[in-house]
Amino acid sequence: MTHTTSSISHTRIIVAGLGGIALLLAAGIVMPKWLNFLLTLAAANGLVSLGIVLLMRSGVVSFGQGMVFALGGYAAALAYGKLGVSDGLLLTLIGGLAALLFSLPFAYLIARYRGIFFAMLSLSLSMVLYGILVKSEVLGGSDGFNMGRITVAGMRPTDAWSGYTNYALTIAVSGIIAIAAKVYFDSTRGLLALAARDNEIRVEYLGSSVRELIATNYLLAAFVGGMGGALAVMALGHIEPNFSYWTTSGEFVFVAILAGHHSVLAAFVASAVLEIVRSFSSLYFPNTWQLALGLFLLAVIRFLPRGIGSLWEARRKQGAPS
């Protein structure tokens, strides 16, 4: 009975997710180009923050997701420029796999640590990569290098549709990853992460390895973060070492805190909110837009201490049958 109920719940999640993707794709056709671009970046960055949300459910926070963001971006840009790969979906997968493979040697090492030690170790890895990228003339040094227009299913979009093509690809990939993440969050292993967050010793007594769980989540976060980096580079058309800088990682943590660890959708909503607030703050308060962002974050922490996701997650649990 429980298995049947779980299958029905997952089916509803998939149907609702696919419906949301279709709605956003249709809306993108009539939306202005600036909003398409803003939501494209929000969805790409939301993937990286979703990885942090995944780690937060395990009781740790990565301050170095800029590393996988940059790895995914550089891998996609290099595959485009050096290998001639132009398909957007293939470049996205290349970015995710590159970040995953690079993070693999560090996963079980970093999974041994908790708290500030986990955060600082992840940050140091990101800053080491930043130093390498800045000094690497082959990769353009501190200026980075440009990336051309992608193709989809062998077709290259015209100038009028290039922005929408990036938008559609990013929304589709982010939506599918979001559906998979929601199913994972509700699975036994996903719920085990919440148990480890509350009491690691009890989880170990039940026969599960918390270190293996965190290492696995770290690699999953690296994969989706690399995909986000590839999608962001395709939208921007340029890659540079600042993708791996600590301020970039800080923005992803900012979004994860806004979202909270209770909802997948909240990571993308918070990312969109950040892009909107930053865009309009820099327009009307060009010298103090960081202050506006800080005040906004303080307001969310004060009135929504569990994050934006708590708004609908609490209602969903109240409406769930007992």
- Following the backbone from N to C, one meets helices and strands in this order, namely HHHHHEHHHHEHHHH
The averaged pLDDT comes out at: 86
Specify the structural class. mainly alpha
Helix content: over 70%
* pLDDT < 50 runs, ≥5 residues: none
Report how far apart the termini are.
Answer: 14 Å
Largest sheet: spatial strand order: 1-2
- What is the tally of beta strands? 2
**Shape type:** globular
Radius of gyration (CA) equals 19 Å
Proportion of residues in extended strands: under 5%
Describe this structure in words.
- There is one protein chain.
- This protein has 322 residues and is mainly alpha-helical.
- It has one domain.
- It is 76% helix and 1% strand.
- The protein is built from 13 helices and two strands.
- The protein has a two-stranded antiparallel ribbon.
- Helix 3 packs antiparallel against helix 4.
Topology:
Layout: H1 2-30, H2 33-56, H3 66-82, H4 88-110, H5 115-135, E1 145-146, H6 159-186, H7 188-198, H8 200-205, H9 210-236, E2 238-239, H10 246-259, H11 264-284, H12 289-303, H13 310-319
Antiparallel strand pairs: 1-2
Helix pairs in contact: 1-6, 2-6, 2-9, 2-10, 2-11, 3-4, 3-9, 4-9, 6-7, 6-9, 10-11, 11-12
Please name the defining characteristics of this protein.
322 residues; mainly alpha; two-stranded antiparallel sheet; 2 strands; 76% helix
